[in-house]
Write a structure and sequence with these properties.
heterodimer; A: 111 residues; mainly beta; three-stranded antiparallel β-sheet; B: 119 residues; 0% helix; 53% strand; globular
Amino acid sequence: QSALTQPPSASGSPGQSVTISCTGTSSDVGGYNYVSWYQQHPGKAPKVMIYEVSKRPSGVPDRFSGSKSGNTASLTVSGLQAEDEADYYCTSYAGSNSLYVFGTGTKVTVL
Amino acid sequence: QVQVQESGPGLVKPSETLSLTCSVSDYSISSDFCWGWIRQPPGKGLEWIGSVFHSGGPYYNPSLKSRVTISVDTSKNQFSLKLTSVTAADTAVYYCAREGCISYWFESWGQGTLVSVSS
């Protein structure tokens, strides 16, 4: 089972938007609405930002939004802030044999 | 929010068994439990290891399945990970997590514990 494909890096200036893609297959991203996104600052544990493609847990700013089209899911961070600089990982349910597959990760830089 | 915390040896010798425990606070693990382990080699991405669900499982990453055991101890409100025959490639930060039982996401994460495999 292969990891989901994310761009290695993305960047934007404060106040701008950045969108990160997460490409899988019909056996994972395209087959289920169970895509979630995690933010990880250096030396810290990941934190969930989006689950079920587009739902935000309590406490996550509405600047973070998720979507999916076919085999590709996306995370958009609007109104970039300095504290958004971090690594972001997607993950998808991949069926009962392998349950989860993670993305390769994207480093977001706020210029 | 459910709190989880990993504990265990930080150094394991090659070919031996890595054993970690995840202690759960502010929640009874015997409720509709869904718990998992994830790891991250230094400087690399996240890798799902396995999960246990109240409705079934455990489920393991196929690439690790032959070496992994995840179990739950409801009397201690803990769940554990055992990984046998470790090599240097198993050196990683290991995280335990509470999962969303219905919608497959990692709701709460522990702070992580670094396990190094070295003689």
